[in-house]
Amino acid sequence: MKLRSLLAAAAIAMAPVILFPPVAATEPPIYTSAFDDIAVQGYDPVAYFKAGKPVKGAKEFSTTWNGAEFRFASAANRDVFKKNPDAYAPQYGGYCAWAVSQGYTAKGDAKFWKIVDGKLYLNYNSSVQKKWEGDIPGFIASANTNWPEVIN
Q: What is the mean pLDDT of residues 51-59?
């Protein structure tokens, strides 16, 4: 009788695992912090192309794209982005370009960036960016192969 009770208890305990298998974790298509849905840490992605540097965006000049809020330094920059977001949004959803080339994701930091062939790339930090700069074409090719599967 004790064995039967133990087996019944085990079956009941396992029921949630059988009925509700674990869900595979996926990353969002655009990197944002765990505390908000703001892309590029609130920096204006159009400004990298126009000003040649990171410029903080403002909440009043924002738009949502691919589930994330993008902020801009001006209404004009916001409107340019809205017309063609793929031209201005960072590659690989703003995740670190070098990490994606290695087959995983890491945060992209808006302060460690580079425009290559008209596309914006972010890196995790200065030391990772130095590694990435060692073979940008090779790392882009690897990252292009890994993206977007790396977020699934």
A: 98
